[in-house]
Amino acid sequence: MNTAHPFSKPVLHQRTSPFLQEKLVQLGCDEVFGEVPCRISSLLGISVSQSQVYRTCQNVAMALDESELNTPEVEMLQVQDKPNEQVYAMVDGSMLFTDEGWQEIKVGRVFQSEHYTENEEDKWRTGLSQYVARRGHYTGFTSLFEKMLRPESACKKIFVTDGATWIGQWIEQRYKGSTHIIDIFHVFEKLAAVAPADKGHWFDKQRASLLNGKVEAVIESLKRQYDKREEVTRLIGYMENHKHQMDYLTYRQNGWMIGSGAIESTHRTLLQVRMKRSGQRWADDGCDNMIKLRVVYKNGKNNLVRNLLKNTA
Questions:
Q1: Of 80, 184, 234, 293, whose CB has the highest number of CB atoms within 10 Å?
Q2: pLDDT digit string (tens) for 157-213?
Q3: Gap between the Cα atoms of 227 and 13, Å rounded
Q4: How many domains does the chain have?
């Protein structure tokens, strides 16, 4: 082999062209590694192995600059700099099966959404979105999220979350002046779990009270229940602690989202569609690398992979 030829120079430790490596990464993010060789053969007439696909994805992911990965696009930065703009922020946990058992992946989405009504129902058109995801302790995640949505930015920041303690404390400390809404469907789920079996209309009444801003009435109804189960007591405490974040009537009048459907769909489209298939199990490093690659493509930053391979060649 003529190792002096420019095409013989290794690219990220592999003697494969930047073009082919980029395609292996793109397909490896969408399909299980074992299915990619057939796709490459069909599309390009080139023979590659499953291990080659795996190595390429790992090498590229490890070489990516994570600070660039979580820097918002120029359009999002411009939106965040305008006091009259609204930006939603949602944070949640997604579970993936690993060699160490089930582990939580912190997932975040920063986006704009336009409110409208259809058949007297509230609807939203979600526009520009940016995504963050990370396995491990929440401090590693929050540092990345704060790059995507800068705490000092001028825009109106609206968080919709499930009210987890760490999320509330983080928002209060880092995003002062923002609005923090407790996902109403999360509250509905908790109420349905403790609804008295002999009072069929009880849940519907509490649901209507919440939507009309009467959270105190819901708390009083819970306190009047004869069944003082532990979960009822916990729910009362939860609602009393978060009642200032449950003014759903005002939120609806403002045209704001009160549900977390946008982050629920993110679980599926960002992680689960690739990483939670039947029989899949991830090593920690492989999990982290695939998360990085999924975020790259979900954020539309394909150029990071392309530039990395070109500059390494």
A1: 293
A2: 999 999 999 999 999 999 999 999 999 999 999 999 988 776 668 899 999 999 999
A3: 65
A4: 1
Residue showing tokens 């930047």: 18
Q: Which residue range is the domain that position 213 belongs to?
A: 187-245
Strands 101-118 and 156-161: unpaired
- Taking the chain, what is the end-to-end CA distance rounded to the nearest angstrom? 18
Nearest-angstrom CA–CA distance, 140 and 302: 24
Write down the pTM of the prediction: 0.89
**The two structure tokens encoding residue 143:** 């540092």
In-domain check, residue 157: no
The token pair at 72 is 């918002």
Position 239 in a domain: yes
Q: What number of other Cβ atoms are within 10 A of residue 273's Cβ?
A: 12
Cα gap 252→255, rounded to integer Å:
5
Asked whether residue 292 is assigned to any structural domain, the reply reads no
Tell me if 154 sits within 8 A of 177, measured CB to CB.
no
Q: Which two tokens stand for residue 251?
A: 């939120």
Alpha-carbon torsion (259, 262, 265, 271), positive or negative: negative
